[in-house]
Structure formats: C-alpha cells, structure tokens
Amino acid sequence: MIVAVTGASGQLGRLVVRSLLDRGVPAGDIVAGTRGPEKVADLAALGVRVREADYDRPQTLASAFAGIDRLLLVSGSEVGVRVAQHTNAVNAAVTAGVSLIVYTSAPYADTTDLPIAPEHKATEEVIRGTGVPFTFLRNGWYVENYTDNLAPALAHGAILGSAGDGKVSAAPRADFAAAAAAVLTGEGHDNKVYELGGDQPFTLTELAAEVSRQSGREVAYRDLPPAEYARALVGAGLPERYAQVLAGSDVALREGRLLVETGDLSRLIGRPTTPLADSVAAGLSRLS
C-alpha cells in the first residue's frame, strides 16, 4: 500500500511522514508531496519518495498521485483560495484512482461559524461528491498557536486575546499527526468524520498561569475587544486579513466553538493527548 502526504514540508505534513515511519511503514511506501522538494531532503535521505505537488499546478498533482492508494490531503494555508486548490488535488486523486482521501478539516466544519470553516466545509462537499471513500480529520486548535509565541508574552507579561473564559481543546501537531498516520495505516475509517481535540481543554487564563508557573515570570491573560486585538496583531506584523481571522477565531473560542469533547483524538492515537504543561515546557525550551 502506497501512502501520500501533501504539504510534507509543512509543520503538520512532515510530522505525519515521521509518524508513518514510526509506525513501521517502509519509507519506500510513503510519498511526500510538496511544492519545494528541496525542503524535504531529510525525508528523501530516509528513503521516502519525494514528489512535487503544487495545489496551484494540477499537472504536478497528477504525477504526484500516480500509483497512490491512500492520500492525506493537508489543507492549504492560503485563506481565500483553498477551495480551488483543494479541488485541484481532489480531482487529481480521483483520476489517479486513490482508494481513500483523508482530509484535515476544521472542528464541526459543516455547522460552525468559525471564520476558517467555510473553506473546509466546501472542500468536504467536493470530496463527498466524488464518491471516493473519505475520512475527515476535523483538527482542533494546535497548541503551538500559543506555545510558539511565548517570547512576547514573557517580554510583556501578557498573553493577548479575545477569548474571555472560553475553553479550547488544543493539542500539539504531533498528536494530530499521529491520528492521521493511524487512519492512513488502519482499517474501518471509510466515510468517517472525527472531531479531534485535546483531552484537557483550557482557558487562556489557565495557559498564562501555566506559563507563569514554569517560567518563574508573571504572565497574565489580557482580554481585549476583537477589533482591538486585531489591531494589536497587525501592529505585531500580521496581515490585516489574517489578524481578522484570528480575532474572529477567538470570539468563536469564547463561545465554545473550539471545545471538542468527543475523545476521538485520544482513541485514534491510543493514548491520552499531550498535557498543556508538557506543551508549555516544550515551548519554553525552544526559547533557551
């Protein structure tokens, strides 16, 4: 069985390839699809087959998916154009005769008002329309959204947001990658939808308290109106559109849209999800 992972040079895709190797999948049975093959030279050195796979260039997708049995379609990062990009990939997968399309979606994509959800909902509909067996991995928030940005929090003594007392079921990318690898190598996942989130949801106030505890510095959560939070993100260098998406996502978090309590993630990976304390420790270690 040949398994392909798109976006293999990205943070999630690379972890999925590593997780497949950890599960004993022979390197030669894994195809790492990426816009920039040179970015995954380390995977190629392990024997993984590297192929160019650019969502904007369908001709690369046709060759990338040739001979593939199961495909993990990692959602693109370019908000606003993803449906067209994903459709290119889905069409190429159908033409290639792929037997299972696994797609990384968003929590409750078909019913939520989460700002990022519409493109995921539309992509799910495209995949369903093909008649090819699918699995939707509706990934919750990556904890690295917070723990990769601890330097400014420590410098200013504050984590900013508009989430109020809402809880987020965040988990590390490695946990979500392990779930994807489990689906790609397992059976019984055809036409299943998994809502994935960490076992221990937390508020941003609790996140700040954990950062304070481990760092020895006082860090507080500062709740802002969404417009003010978006302006702060723009001031920190984020594009206006992305800042608005993040602020809107915090509003959704406050209203419970990022709380996932299905237990699907821990069941798929066969263990509890990584605790917040471990993720904060990892984030702080990256600063030293």
Automatic annotation (TrEMBL):
One Pfam family linked to the record: NmrA
GO molecular function, one term: NAD(P)H dehydrogenase (quinone) activity
EC number: 1.6.5.2
InterPro entries: NAD(P)-bd_dom_sf, NmrA-like, NmrA-type_oxidoreductase
Keywords: Oxidoreductase
CDD domains registered for this protein in UniProt: TMR_SDR_a (cd05269)
Domain NmrA-like: 3-249
Protein name: SDR family oxidoreductase
Species for this entry: Phytohabitans kaempferiae
